[in-house]
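Key result, reporting period 2: structure in, sequence out.
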């Protein structure tokens, strides 16, 4: 029998196993990255939905106030809240609400529906930030106008 007909040499087997091991490691790493990206995307989706939910709750609370002072006080109370954790099953998520006053002076610079019904300085810019384990994943903002849903008739 000739030497080449007897099978593989030890060096050939070691090289083949090394190439196989490296390939398996690279494929495993690719799957781990894929799982991590998918998980991050899911966390961002949940954070976005939670941010919108909180924003809608914030928008509805002051609307029940009958006076401008009550409306402003309600927003001040909302803005004073610290970073707040969501309840189960979203315990790793927390939110914070930021509220800024929007000055509507002079009234000529704004749409008439804001100024003709006596809405001086009655607009707030609300931003909700949702964090997952300390990292901000979602942020939504909206303008809130006093009596937006109950405009008095002219």
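The corresponding designed sequence is given below.
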């Amino acid at each position: 029998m000739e030497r080449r007909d007897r099978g593989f040499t030890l060096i050939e087997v070691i090289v083949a196993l090394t190439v196989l091991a490296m390939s398996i490691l690279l494929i495993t790493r690719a799957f781990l990255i894929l799982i991590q990206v998918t998980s991050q995307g899911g966390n961002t989706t949940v954070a976005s939905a939670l941010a919108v939910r909180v924003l809608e709750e914030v928008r509805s609370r002051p609307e029940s106030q009958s006076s401008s002072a009550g409306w402003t006080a309600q927003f001040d109370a909302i803005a004073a809240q610290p970073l707040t954790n969501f309840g189960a099953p979203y315990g790793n998520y927390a939110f914070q609400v930021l509220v800024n006053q929007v000055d509507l002076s002079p009234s000529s610079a704004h749409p008439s529906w804001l100024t003709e019904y006596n809405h001086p300085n009655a607009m707030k810019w609300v931003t909700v930030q949702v964090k997952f384990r300390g990292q901000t994943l979602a942020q939504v903002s909206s303008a809130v106008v006093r009596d937006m849903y109950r405009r008095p008739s002219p």
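The chain has one domain: 8-145. Residues 10-60 form the longest helix (51 residues). This case is discussed further under Risks and Mitigation.
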